[in-house]
Amino acid sequence: MRDTxxxxxxxxxxxxxxxxTFRDGSTRRAALKGLLGAAVAPLVTCRGGGRSTGSSPxxxxxxxxxxxxxxxxxxxxxxxLQTPNLDSMSRSGLRFDRFYSGAxxxxxxxxxxxxxxxxxxxxxxxxxxxxxxxxxxxxxxLLREHGYTTGHFGKWHLGTLTNDQExxxxxxxxxxxxxxxxxxxxxxxxxxxxxxPTWNPMVDQxxxxxxxxxxxxxxxxxxxxxxxxxxxxxxxxFLQRAAESGTPFFAVIWFHTPHSPVVAGxxxxxxxxxxxxxxxxxxxxxxxxxxxxxxxxxxxxxLGVADNTMLWYCSDNGPEGRTTQQRNxxxxxxxxxxxxxxLFEGGLRVPGILEWPLRLAPGRATAVPCSTAxxxxxxxxxxxxxxxxxxxxxxGISLVPLIDGTMAARGSRIxxxxxxxxxxxxxxxxxxxxxxLIGDRYKFLSYLDTERADEDMLFDIAVDPGxxxxxxSELPELVAAMRTELEQWDASCARSADGADYSDx
Length: 505
Known about the structure:
Elements: E1 19-20, E2 59-65, H1 84-92, E3 94-100, H2 106-115, H3 139-144, E4 149-155, E5 188-192, E6 212-214, E7 217-218, H4 227-245, E8 249-254, H5 266-270, H6 277-302, E9 309-315, H7 345-348, E10 349-355, E11 364-366, E12 370-371, H8 375-382, E13 392-393, H9 400-403, E14 414-417, E15 435-438, E16 442-446, E17 457-460, H10 476-497
Parallel strand pairs: 2-8, 2-9, 3-11, 3-12, 4-5, 4-8
Antiparallel strand pairs: 1-13, 3-10, 6-7, 9-10, 14-15, 15-16, 16-17
Helix pairs in contact: 4-6
């Protein structure tokens, strides 16, 4: 087990200043031995401090949908889709009106959620490429070292899970990308490498995969029907055992819905009988997911742990486009420009909610831009696990000041980059450049190429969320400043990718 402690007070600081040091343990990998001399905060035991309550640390749950668009909820204005539990959750806690996935595709976002770092720092440029490195410190490792029990349930997508059989898009037998959750801090797993059909997940898979429960072990029963229910059937007993033992828990519940193959069961299709077949499947499977979110919230209340549980919900990127092969993809960006794979708002801005009754009054909403990369520093800050000196770049910031009502603006900007589109062509980004920088008001997009400077884009997102009016020619000084900041961040990611974060200090 890794002994890990975060080390940066990062709220509101520029991304180059947002860094963390982690405390070395007896079994620490050689790449991190240079961090031994860093100052660290005291460990938090399962009954210990943590400034969330003064008596016990919060439980943490990260829920994530797969390809759910900004507009794919009732509370964000969808005219037909029924999501009563997400709507209720949005009214019961903090609704993020500008919540961003760490990337416009799946795997990089998931890596950002667990590390607080942009996955270009450690080689996950897109889906089904690279893997989470052994030298990275995950939120599961951090919390397990401080007395938590940890579980991952659903889609993993951060490396292969077996070297013994065909599995997932990469076909298994890829030891260079073997990176299962049980080697990254998770005590209990029910994990698939890639997407599953959203109904009868073991049937008609485009990329046959298993739900792995450990090295060489996979589930063989209770795999029929709605996939969101199949996943929650494994997560709920984990939560029950933790609550009964009095142990704080960290649960990652990553649904496959509504990623293709998009299929809803008869009960949920019937709820949308007046719509086309494709709409029935798409809306039905999201409503089925919503029911499982309601089941989760009810279970937390029944167990008496809801008040001190940080329950996060988001999507991994914007909605998939509709093609002949993907006729059931009916996702909505809510009128935002772009979709999955694009750095326009429709590819990055996703539903985002935090429910934490002990700390958050109901009915709050915020327009402060936030990101999946903020999970790690926020949870670490809530447990008082920050210390100095800063050493290791983080791309997220702590949202504890926002939770406490003392943050009116982010201050720092959120940076993005995505592949150059060589595999699918530039059309895969729907016209967006391959880098973006999002602040409280303005958003800048660029190729960071002087020969393509005329393709730079600048939008006043506060008044133009649809990105219709390019202000780049009208505000050249702001464009220059944001390009410089983005170039510096890009160089920082390149240094990280070259191994600078793991060298002796």
